[in-house]
């Protein structure tokens, strides 16, 4: 199935009840209740605050794939794409090969307390992706229990990344990123990792047709406390998915489509191929992510007799069950090594606050004044 066909499937089966960044159990409860009998629904545990953690099992094949999303509660793009995928399985015979050859076990929201509060951490203020060894949290034990019982052949660790990441020094945003996590301190390219790398290479080939130069990989420094590294170290090929930023897509709806394409491409590849890791080397050509972006950079602003750049980063704030983006000045200095998703040329003018004062680090407001005109800082 080519990439254009998969894009058409996405447009046909996108779950329209899920949108933007705030996705919680309340948003998916009805969707889960309305799943047909091809999906086995389980409550596999509860969160710190007693919210249900769901497991969805679909397919009858021998190749077992475990997928979990929203381990970090504020990373919801991959969850939206999961329900787009489930809609597709429900209605499209052309993907029946996946479900005949594979069995998928999907945890759509592992951290429902974090999802509701829109935080990375759980209700005990623990990062679940650093709890793989201690297993101190009910959500961590939930995932581990499923891993032990389901015995997956592949794991999909589904996340979202901040707007700060670019692809190397290219000046392009890292819209989707992957990682075949290390399984030892030496970051050895083991046979197990090669399998994950080969699958990532297949997804990257498809994405390059749509977002050329905007796919990155994470640093593979080993941390046994991370879930991906732990599962990889247990010789289960594990793939980290990171849904990132595309130009002006702060709701992550276009990125959602790219993640969906990645799901379908990788699942078809696993279903139709004996993945041995032989074709892993293209993975090594994918540039590494770099922290080199701000949401906005105002260039050439006058401070005394010096021209400096102003870096603005959005703070994601939950207000009334909706995520709003609040601009905050993070740096005022020469930023020649950084890029802005939006860049404004002050053209040697002084940049003022709404009160007519010189802007300074930490300033938060939806606009600044340049040449006596208000300039909006909020995303459209």
From TrEMBL:
Cofactor requirements of the protein: Zn(2+)
GO terms under biological process: proteolysis
SUPFAM superfamilies listed in its UniProt record: Zn-dependent exopeptidases
GO cellular component, one term: extracellular space
Protein name: Peptidase M14
Similarity comment: Belongs to the peptidase M14 family.
Species whose genome carries this gene: Neotamlana sargassicola
Lineage: Bacteria, Pseudomonadati, Bacteroidota, Flavobacteriia, Flavobacteriales
MF annotations from Gene Ontology: metallocarboxypeptidase activity; zinc ion binding
Keyword entries, A-Z: Hydrolase, Metalloprotease, Protease, Zinc
Domain Peptidase M14, first and last residues per copy: 18-258
């Amino acid at each position: 199935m080519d990439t254009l066909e998969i894009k058409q499937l996405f447009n046909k089966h996108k779950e329209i009840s899920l949108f933007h960044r705030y996705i919680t159990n309340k948003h998916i409860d009805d969707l889960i209740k309305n799943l047909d009998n091809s999906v086995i629904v389980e409550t596999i545990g509860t969160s710190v605050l007693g919210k249900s953690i769901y497991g969805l099992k679909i397919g009858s094949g021998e190749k077992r794939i475990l997928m979990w999303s929203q381990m970090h509660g504020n990373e919801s793009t991959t969850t939206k794409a999961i329900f787009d995928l489930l809609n597709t399985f429900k209605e499209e015979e052309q993907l029946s090969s996946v479900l005949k050859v594979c069995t998928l076990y999907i945890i759509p929201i592992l951290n429902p307390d974090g999802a509701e509060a829109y935080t990375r951490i759980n209700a005990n203020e623990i990062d679940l992706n650093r709890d793989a060894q201690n297993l101190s949290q009910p959500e961590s034990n939930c995932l581990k229990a499923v891993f032990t019982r389901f015995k997956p052949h592949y794991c999909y660790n589904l996340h979202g990344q901040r707007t700060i990441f670019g692809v190397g020094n290219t000046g392009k945003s890292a819209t989707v990123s992957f990682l075949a996590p290390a399984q030892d301190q030496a970051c050895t390219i083991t046979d197990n990792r090669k399998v994950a790398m080969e699958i990532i290479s297949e997804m990257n080939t498809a994405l390059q047709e749509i977002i050329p130069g905007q796919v990155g990989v994470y640093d593979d420094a080993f941390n046994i406390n991370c879930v991906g590294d732990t599962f990889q170290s247990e010789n289960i090929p594990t793939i980290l998915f990171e849904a990132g930023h595309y130009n002006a897509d702060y709701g992550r709806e276009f990125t959602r489509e790219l993640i969906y394409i990645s799901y379908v491409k990788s699942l078809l590849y696993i279903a139709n191929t004996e993945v041995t890791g032989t074709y892993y080397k293209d993975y090594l050509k994918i540039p590494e992510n770099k922290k080199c972006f701000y949401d906005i950079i105002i260039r050439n602003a006058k401070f005394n007799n010096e021209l400096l750049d102003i870096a603005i980063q959005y703070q994601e704030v939950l207000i009334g069950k909706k995520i709003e983006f609040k601009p905050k000045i993070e740096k005022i200095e020469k930023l020649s090594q950084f890029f802005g998703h939006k860049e404004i040329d002050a053209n040697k003018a002084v940049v003022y606050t709404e009160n007519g004062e010189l802007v300074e680090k930490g300033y938060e407001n939806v606009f600044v004044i340049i040449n006596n005109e208000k300039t909006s800082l909020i995303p459209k």
